[in-house]
Write a structure and sequence with these properties.
Blueprint (H helix, E strand, L loop, with lengths): L1 E5 L4 H13 L3 E5 L10 H4 L9 E3 L5 E3 L1 H9 L9 H29 L8 H22 L12 H10 L13 H11 L23
Parallel strand pairs: 1-2
Antiparallel strand pairs: 1-3, 3-4
The chain binds glutathione.
C-alpha cells in the first residue's frame, strides 16, 4: 500500500490527499512533526533531502517528494493528466506557475494563521503580497476564458492551484474581487470525489514556532 508522509495542516499535502480521494486509492499516513524538527532528522532526510512533506512511498520502497511531482506520478494514465504532449506540458506550465507564484499565498497564509506575520520584515511581506495579488490577477484573467486552468477539463493543475488559492482569504488576500476565480472554486468543489476536509494549524500546538 502507498504511504503518504503528511502534516495535516499542509495544503501541499492536501493536494495529494485530494487526488488520492478522486482516484479512490487507499493509502496509509505517516504524520511528520515538522515544527518539532522531525523533518530535519536523518531518518526523514533520507526520505526527502529537503525535509518537507508531502512525500509518497511506493510499494517497492521508492520515495517521491514535491507535491506536484507526486500529482503527476499518480495522475499518469488517468483523466486528470492529458496524455498528448501539448496537453501534458500545458498542465506542467500551470504546475510551475503554482510553485513560482502561488507559493506566496501559502507563505502568507502560514505566517498569518500561526501569528508569525508581525515578526516578518515588512518589505518581505509587501513583496510576497505583490506576488500573490499578481498571481490572483493572472488566474482571474485566465479563468475568465475557460472553465479549468489548462483547458476544458479538470486536471491536477486545478488541484494544485486550488489548494492555496481557495484559502487566500486566510492570508488577507480578498477573493471577492475575483469572480472568475470564485466560479472556478465552485466548479472544483463540485468534482466527484472532492475532499472537503482541511485541517487548521491550531491542531498542532507547535505550529506557532519557527520551522527548524
Ligand atoms: N515545493 C514543495 C513545498 C513543500 C513544503 O513547503 N512543505 C511544508 C509543509 S506545507 C513543509 O514540510 N515544511 C517543513 C520544512 O520545509 O522543513 C511541495 O510542493 O511539496
Amino acid at each position: 500500500m502507498l504511504t503518504l508522509y503528511d502534516y495535516l495542516p499542509s495544503q501541499n499535502a492536501w493536494k495529494v490527499r485530494l487526488l488520492l480521494n478522486h482516484l479512490d486509492i487507499p493509502y496509509r499516513t505517516e504524520n511528520v512533526r515538522i515544527f518539532e524538527g522531525e523533518g530535519q532528522q536523518p531518518a526523514f532526510l533520507a526520505v526527502n533531502p529537503t525535509g518537507a512533506v508531502p512525500v509518497l512511498r511506493l510499494d517497492d520502497g521508492r520515495t517521491l517528494a514535491e507535491s506536484n511531482a507526486i500529482l503527476t506520478y499518480l495522475a499518469h494514465g488517468t483523466p486528470y493528466l492529458p496524455a498528448d504532449p501539448f496537453g501534458h506540458a500545458k498542465v506542467q506550465q500551470w504546475l510551475s506557475f503554482e510553485q513560482d507564484h502561488v507559493a506566496s499565498i501559502a507563505t502568507l497564509r502560514h505566517w498569518t494563521l500561526t501569528g508569525k506575520l508581525a515578526r516578518r520584515a515588512p518589505a518581505l511581506v509587501e513583496r510576497l503580497r505583490h506576488v500573490a495579488h499578481r498571481a490572483l490577477a493572472i488566474l482571474e484573467h485566465e479563468l475568465t476564458g475557460r472553465p479549468f486552468i489548462a483547458g476544458d477539463i479538470y486536471t491536477i493543475a486545478d488541484m494544485s492551484l486550488f489548494a492555496y488559492v481557495h484559502r487566500a482569504d486566510e492570508a488577507d488576500l480578498a477573493l471577492a474581487g475575483h469572480p472568475a476565480v470564485m466560479r472556478w472554486i465552485d466548479r472544483v468543489r463540485g468534482q466527484p470525489g472532492f475532499l472537503g476536509t482541511v485541517y487548521p494549524y491550531s491542531i498542532d500546538p507547535f505550529s506557532g514556532g519557527e520551522l527548524p
